[in-house]
Design brief:
single chain, 357 residues, alpha/beta, Rossmann fold, Helicase, Ruva Protein, domain 3, Zinc Finger, Delta Prime, domain 3, 3 domains, 5-stranded parallel sheet, two-stranded parallel ribbon, 17 helices
Length: 357
């Protein structure tokens, strides 16, 4: 996997996040860091930052670092706790998942590290943690400052309670497509693999990646496996051929919107169940894909419209955004994302919001 092969080993290798790196360098030089909240859109280097930080503090990503994939815990609860070998001594069938989880965090944070001044406890997608678990973390952070540092990574900082945010140094990871960082990264990987990436191929890859470095690298790797062995040239067509199969999530959302606009509610329900229950994709991620798909449809339609017709299109899209906002709020504390997404999408047909779109 190229994403792992080219993952930064040092902080200076993190692409497009010079401000973040410069802020943390002084701490690393003194072999200490504060608790951290890393926030920014997907694929901006938050996880790579933690790996590189661990390498600089400990010389490797070792036993002094524990990664908690919060999404796995929230989705599977006791099943995840019982199957993870790290937690076998804590698992108790008689206790709730939250109680076991709290005990694990307290014990890990309190234990002294091996040949290091402190350990790192890294929560990926921290905004998914239930509120009571976050409240418990607040107290653990205060009590274990001598033995552990907490790092929270999220695309939605508002999902982390203020009591936790205020105890962390907040670091914003800016989108890579707002600068030349993504292009430079992809070009360097292509060069390292002996590939010729055309300007058209780079542009197409950039459009599909939306600033997500991980997605861009995976697309480039997939395209490289199908390109002709002699030329090793990757152009726009090569990227397009890859994304037709690779972007299952995006294509499925396009189908959902078409079904909703046609009033095929059974198809909408079935599509949501596939994405959420089978593919394990979060409701928030699906909502973002829906929004982006609607924006693309709107742009295409605007090109063929003008005057009053275009103004009506803008008004319909504004109403769509209102429904998206309501769904986004409901998803924050929802136990069943399907209900709220399905409710939102029924409006697409009922109010004819996407007529001529």
């Amino acid at each position: 996997m190229w994403a792992e092969k080219y993952r930064p080993k040092r902080l200076d290798e993190i692409a497009g996040q010079e401000e973040v790196v410069n802020r943390i360098k002084g701490f690393v030089k003194g072999k200490t860091i504060p608790n951290l909240l890393l926030w920014g859109q997907k694929g901006t280097g938050k996880t790579s930052f933690v790996y590189a930080l661990a390498n600089e503090l400990y010389g490797s990503y070792d036993e002094n670092v524990m990664l908690i994939e919060t999404a796995d815990f929230v989705e599977q609860r006791k099943k995840w706790l019982s199957e993870d070998k790290r937690f076998k001594f804590f698992y108790d069938e008689q206790k709730s998942a939250i109680d076991i989880f709290k005990e694990i965090i307290r014990e890990y944070a309190a234990l002294r590290p091996i040949n290091a001044p402190f350990k790192l406890l890294f929560f990926n997608s921290a905004d998914l943690l239930p509120g009571n678990a976050q409240q418990a973390l607040r107290r653990v952070i205060e009590r274990s400052n001598k033995t552990c540092r907490f790092i929270f990574s999220t695309t939605r900082p508002a999902g982390v309670i203020p009591a936790v945010r205020s105890r962390c140094l907040n670091l914003h990871f800016t989108p890579l497509d707002k600068s030349d960082a993504l292009d430079a990264l992809i070009k360097s990987i292509a060069e390292g693999e002996g590939l010729k990436l055309t300007e058209g191929g780079l542009k197409t890859l950039r459009e599909y990646a939306r600033g997500d470095a991980g997605a861009a690298i995976n697309m480039l790797e997939a395209a490289a496996t199908t390109t002709r062995a002699k030329t090793k040239t990757i152009d726009a067509i090569g990227i397009e051929n890859v994304v037709q199969n690779a972007f299952f999530q995006r294509n499925k959302v396009e189908e959902l919107i078409d079904s909703a606009c046609a009033g095929r509610y059974k198809d909408v329900r079935a599509g949501l169940e596939i994405l959420i229950r089978d593919e394990k994709i979060g409701g928030k991620e699906i909502l973002v894909e829906i929004h982006e798909a609607l924006r693309r449809k709107m742009k295409i339609s605007e090109m063929a419209m003008g005057g009053e017709e275009e103004q009506n299109l803008v008004k319909r899209f504004a109403r769509i955004v209102l429904y998206e906002g309501e769904a986004d709020l409901k998803l924050c504390n929802s136990l069943n994302s399907i209900i709220h997404l399905e409710e939102m999408m029924t409006h697409f047909f009922f109010f004819k919001l996407l007529e001529k779109v």
